[in-house]
Amino acid sequence: EFSSSSFLADHTSHLTFFNCPIKNIKHSIMTTAVNTAITTPVKSENGFAKAFQPFACGGAAATFASIAIHPMDLAKVRMQLYGQLNPGKQAPGFVTILSNMIKSDGIGSIYTGVDAAIGRQLVYGTARIGLHRKFSDRLVELNGGNPISFVQKALSGMASGSIAVCIGTPFDIALVRLQADGMAKPEDRRNYKNVFDALIRTSREEGIGALYKGLGPNILRGMSMNVGMMACYDQAKEVVANLLNDPMTNGPTLPTRIGASLCAGFTAALFSLPFDLIKSRLMAQKPDPLTGELPYKGIADCALKILRGEGPLGFFSGFSAYYGRCAPHAMIILLSIESITNAYKSAFGLK
């Protein structure tokens, strides 16, 4: 009769005779299995971490920058909407707007809608920076590792910007409405509690399509913003590095990054402000209580009414606040993203 215990005992003695105890074999097999089980997922996780790096680091930098400059963004939106709500009157400066808000509603009022700004950057900022870096890195690979032309950088910025806008527009709608609500008369205010209340009520009261109001100009703004910020930064970085004799062997030095980010902040504001103005007005518009008609029928109608009513310079209404927002925002993102990326690589053991 077969006995498993006697079989193991006999064979264990044979293996021991050849100086190869079975417990050593079992230990070797277990060690190999454990090592395989541990190392395989780590490689997989590191691969995912590397692929997700530009998105995680870009989103973190954009969110941090958005929180830092939110009061400037709030003042910018109010300056843009002032001409619509007060025809013929000159918009006050951003310092006046912010000081009046603090006097009437307290210091917390200048952070109205910050939750929507954070949500927007977690979606829009993550996508536009991450996709641009992915697209431009791929173009560099296709170019044999050599620097790509400004046209290619611009195309990468336009593509990534337009895709990101399509994803993040609902949060943009919520942000603009939360920021504009305080300018309306008490009886005309929507009185949203927070970003999620704004999203839910807008879709419930006006339909899902209302969350994509102003999508056209928002796409144009996203494309122009990404070209002005990301593509121009990449180009300016090369120019400034040449002027400062920076070899950029381990990445650009701090003076190179500061100079390039200053250029990028200006071009981002200059390229995108007209589209940002149109976008803000289309997103914030409300139907006339008597006729039920909206003030603007579309992008072209909005642009024509601004041109006729406020002149060509009307498209650059609030430029001081907008530049004051774009330049620090661009600089904070482009300077902090290097430190965030280094910390990310260290945390996941990436080179």
Order of helices and strands: HHHHHHHHHHH
What is the SS-derived class? mainly alpha
Rg, Å, rounded: 28 Å
The percent range for strand residues is under 5%
- Estimated helix fraction: over 70%
Taking the sheet with the most strands, its summary is: none
How large is the count of helical segments? 11
Q: Mean of the pLDDT scores?
A: 82
Q: How would you describe the oligomerization state of the chains in this entry?
A: single chain
Uncertain ranges: 11-23, 36-43
How far apart lie the N and C ends? 62 Å
Q: Which geometry do the CA atoms define? A: globular
Number of strands: 0
How would the blueprint of this fold be written?
Elements lengths: L3 H14 L4 H47 L1 H16 L8 H12 L8 H29 L7 H31 L14 H12 L8 H29 L10 H31 L14 H12 L8 H30 L3
Helix pairs in contact: 2-5, 2-11, 3-4, 3-9, 3-11, 5-6, 6-7, 6-8, 8-9, 9-11
